Amino acid sequence: MVFTGIHHLALITDDMDKTIRFWRDLLGMRMLAATGDGRNKQYFFEICENAIVSFFEWPEAVNPEEKLHGEPTEHPQAFDHVAIGVENHKALEEMKVRLESAGFWVSPVVDHEFIHSIYSFDPNNIPIEFTTEVKGRSLREVLRMSDRNITDIAREGQEPQPGKKPAPKPGKPQTGQPTG
To answer: CATH assignment of 3-59+79-153?
Structure first.
C-alpha cells in the first residue's frame, strides 16, 4: 500500500466567515472548495501541495477552550476526522478489503465527485477516511463553489484577500504565546 499523505484534516467551526478570514486571508492559503447542501458546509484550504485542511460549519458547535497543546482536557474539541490519501482507486479497494478482513467496519466507496472515499474507525474510535483524488476533478484542478448558502466573504474567491485578515481580539496577547 502506498500512501500519499494526509489528504485533509476535517475540523469544526461555528462560523465559516471567521474561518475563511483566518485561513485564506491571514495565513494566505488558497480556498480550494466551498461545498454545502443548504444544511451542511465543508470548506477546504490548501496548506501545501500534499496537505489540505477543511472545516465543517456547525453554528451550534461549542468552540474548545484555549489550552496548551498536548494537555489533556475534558472539554469539547474541534476535531472531526483525518483523511489519508492513497494513490488510486485500486488502492482504495485494497484498503477496504484489508480493514474488513481484520474485522473493522468500512463504508461503501463514496463518490464525492472530486475524491472517492471509504470511512472507518481505528481501535480508539478515531474516525478515519481513506481517499483518492479523481483525475481532472481534484480540488487543486477545479475550484468547487457549490455551497447553496455561500456568504459574501466566500464569494470573494479562493485567493487570499489583502487587507481582509481578522482584527486582533481586544485584551488578547498578540505574541502567539499561550496564556497558560
So the answer is: 3.10.180.10
pLDDT, tens digit, 9 for 90 and up, residues 12-67:
888 999 999 989 998 889 999 999 998 889 999 998 888 899 999 988 888 777 77
Go through 55-81 and write b for each residue having 16 or more CB atoms within 10 A of its CB, e for each that does not: bbbeeeeeeeeeeeeeeeeeeeeeebb
Residue 90 sits at the vertex; the CA angle it makes with 85 and 95, to the nearest 5 degrees, is 60
Task: Parse the chain into domains and list their residue ranges.
Answer: 3-59+79-153
Edge-to-edge, what's the strand order for the sheet holding 115-121? 110-111, 115-121, 127-133, 79-86, 3-13, 51-57, 41-48, 31-36, 144-145
pTM listed for this prediction: 0.67
Cα separation, 168 vs 171, in Å, equals 9
How many angstroms from the chain centroid is the CA of residue 17?
15
Those residues whose C-beta lies under 8 Å from the C-beta of residue 104, and which sit 6 or more positions away, are 120, 121
Residues 74, 4: Cα–Cα separation, whole Å:
33
For residue 70 the three cell numbers come to 498536548
Query: CA-CA distance, 78 to 87, in Å (whole number)?
Result: 28
